[in-house]
């Protein structure tokens, strides 16, 4: 897939996600234009997730997000969305970043801007799911944020103990 084809595909994905109906433009593929149509009553709700492990980004889908996150144990959860079109959305994102895909996997070597774009596309196409407190198993989690740490330091200094 050439650079101009990737750019055109990116525009089509954005148009699909933003809800514009300009799919009759020159060079558009009917398969791309029809892949994110509104849900039929038979379509079940599923999840699309964008996670990070060892510097790589995984774009995948599942019907049970809690089970899948427990299996994968990602270092970072960038985005989880619920959508009846989760399978089509995954295919569109995989096509959009096909040139960054690690051979034979759902992992991609995305930079910050590309990952942000994938998250934005996912957010616009589905309902954002807030995963409780980041990763459910505590990997990569800090025990406290800066505000809590600062509060503890002030408390320790107030009672006369030294921190260092």
Task: Write structural notes for this entry.
Helix 1 runs antiparallel to helix 4 (86-96). This protein has 164 residues and is of the alpha+beta class. The protein starts with a helix and ends in a 6-residue tail after the last helix. It has helices spanning 3-18, 30-34, 65-72, 86-96, 112-125, 146-158, and strands at 46-53, 56-62, 76-83, 107-108, 127-128. The chain has one domain (3-136).
* Residue-averaged pLDDT: 73
| Helix and strand composition category | alpha+beta
Strand order of the largest sheet: 4-2-1-3-5
**Outline:** elongated
* Quaternary: single chain
User: What about the largest sheet?
Assistant: 5 strands, antiparallel
* Proportion in β-strands: 15-25%
Please bin the fraction of helical residues: 40-55%
* Element pattern in H and E: HHEEHEHEHEH
Q: Which segments are poorly predicted (pLDDT under 50) over 5 or more consecutive residues?
A: 15-39, 136-144
Radius of gyration: 20 Å
List keywords for this structure.
alpha+beta, 5 strands, 41% helix
What is the secondary structure topology, with strand pairs?
Elements lengths: L2 H16 L11 H5 L11 E8 L2 E7 L2 H8 L3 E8 L2 H11 L10 E2 L3 H14 L1 E2 L17 H13 L6
Helix pairs in contact: 1-4, 1-5
Describe the structure concisely.
The protein is α+β, with helices and mostly antiparallel strands. It has one domain (3-136). It has 6 helices and 5 strands, in the order ααββαβαβαβα.
